[in-house]
């Protein structure tokens, strides 16, 4: 009778309660900050028709899909990113939706790729997007939200940086130096720092660039200041793209985020649909994968068959973020805690259930939104075992339903945080909890 | 250029912000009540190895899987229910986990079946389970949580009922009347009220029962009181099963849930793994599908190759619940609302961003957990359009960053709820919000 129990699928995770508490801390913080910026939450199905991804995103993503044919003969894929779903939602209600609007989602995503540090086959990703405006203040809003979020997680300015680049600027520069096929060039540029200078030069040669063009491009991508870029580019389009970046930085500066952003032309982003500002967020020293990344995609809805509706957004994955927070010791305790443990010397289970329900009901009518957590034994057992359970569950106060020192309407109770014994009514017990 | 944009996959849903607000209301209420009963949240992967489902659950479920072979040649299935994942988690850490424990999860589930009212191919389901005790007080705890939850949603006692039956009792009765193969009988009994008396009798004949046995069984399943059942069954096992139900009802009665539960031997549940109490929750008059259903499964981990660890739990889907709440007019407003809209007569975007950030920061340091929602224009526009936007977003207060009646450190502001104009500092504005 030794049946082999099936294992957890490779590249996915089990979230036992201790792990799930950390996930919920991340999700709560994402949601709270997104809502404080007045982004509205949305969701979509976990899978889409395969066509929504094929040809629309970069090839890198398409080759990494979990795709299959369903029992109704439809070609289906588990969603590898949220933006195509977002674009579908926007196209479907293009006329009803009052633009601009700010939306966020925390989708679960799936990519069939080699599982490794910071990369899993199943992960969560905060997505925030602004649809319906070409204004650079949309980018400013997104970056202010990112910085606010990372600060809320406890990171200090200087421990992270939002690196900003511009596809528009890159496109202009590629045109200026006479590069033949920009669409072939972007994926190479995106891998520049990963593949090393030689492989980079070879890949660009394959994309049709001359040695001189490659040298210029490499120098351009190393520019560290607006002034350096200004000296390198000449066209009107380039200076418009630069002006945008200058205004973006000035706006973020005045909102208190000056130390959180910098120019980083080495950022390109792999996906084909970006058309303007692109950005990535890294920990100090870039020791990890990007914490977040995004950019402007003004022609995505058009490519998918809808009207042209401008958009800009980013994704922030849970895996790298949690690794970073763990490294900085910024994750909360994963331990269980309960407010009240209802115990009984005589195993009077009916009295136990009744009292537990009384405490739960009192919290549900409280105005300040308190939500008491109430536990108790689930079977008759000795008081010693009940106290063990209370301690194990992180109970703050043990309430005895049948302590003999208590009068009618009162209870004996023990504060496990300091070991003190008390006698009092329900109000006194709640007061002790909050003391 | 008229590319056909891919449609939403059949049987799945898009959640635009208005729909997502309703979802979040349901999820929040589920989570709050589960936590108030000291259940700990867990999660698992969205798909499992196919073997986890084949042969372990009833056949009905297996034929309705979204299953496929992944790029690494693994047979995979999107999860159709959470219990097999839960059993896997429990088996994996059978020794470390301190029993009994109470867990909940709100998984997204997938079943390839005909989409119809109350039934979708992709849905959410609250799961609450107690692992590691055979005590009937575990059932009492789960049912108290269900009743508390439905009351919290605004339903009154009498508008729903938890119908309780017992597989143990049924098994004893089947033995008493000499039914040859109980495993063949349960799926038929589960469909009793759906298929009508003739088809029911025929299916039982096919399962090997005589006319007399069928008549007895039908009468037994119609018993409405403990007394009626007592008169029908004789064995010691039967009376032990009945005593359990009596204690369950008495405990719930003393905790204030007497009107929420009743005996209903017509409930059988389709899944093969139940071993004791089974229950289903219906709206008054059973006009809809079950709101929730569950039962005791003391040998599931054993069947999956682990040690025998008793368990009991239920699932409550989002679709039927939302239909029911909608019918009772109990769903909250789905409209957006924001606390502050920061406006500027001179389109001073830097001042707008700075002020918005000031209000967000003030809420993040507030002790009572307030989380101000702050919006503002994303591009220069006339004041009239800014006010339109503020109204459309449900803003409560518009703050003017450059109103000329305000002194240094003060703002002009308008309360859109009553149309009043004010002048004051940030504290005065927050006070007005809470007035």
**Silhouette of chain A:** elongated
Quaternary arrangement of the chains shown? Answer: homodimer
| Uncertain regions spanning at least 5 consecutive residues of chain A | none
Estimate percent helicity of chain A. Answer: 25-40%
How is the main sheet of chain A built? 9 strands, mixed
List strands and helices in order, with pairings.
The structure is a homodimer of 435-residue chains.
Chain A (H helix, E strand, L loop, with lengths): L16 H20 L3 E2 L5 E3 L9 H4 L4 E3 L5 E4 L4 H10 L8 E5 L2 E3 L11 E10 L4 H17 L7 E7 H10 L5 H9 L1 H15 L4 H11 L4 H7 L3 H19 L6 E3 L13 E7 L8 E5 L3 H4 L7 E7 H10 L10 E6 L5 H17 L8 E2 L7 H10 L2 E6 L10 E5 L4 E5 L1 H8 L2
Parallel strand pairs in A: 1-5, 8-9, 13-14, 13-15
Antiparallel strand pairs in A: 2-4, 3-4, 5-7, 6-7, 7-12, 8-10, 10-11, 11-12, 15-16, 16-17
Description:
- Two copies of one chain form a homodimer.
- By secondary structure, chain A is α+β, with helices and mostly antiparallel strands.
- Chain A contains 15 helices and 17 strands.
- In chain A, strands 1, 5, 6, 7, 8, 9, 10, 11 and 12 form a nine-stranded mixed sheet that branches.
- In chain A, a hairpin with a 5-residue loop joins β3 (67-69) and β4.
- In chain A, α1 (17-36) runs antiparallel to α4.
- The longest helix of chain A is centred in the N-terminal third of the chain and has 20 residues, at 17-36.
- The radius of gyration of chain A is 28 Å and the shape is elongated.
- Chain A starts with 16 loop residues before the first helix and ends with a helix.
- The mean pLDDT of chain A is 92.
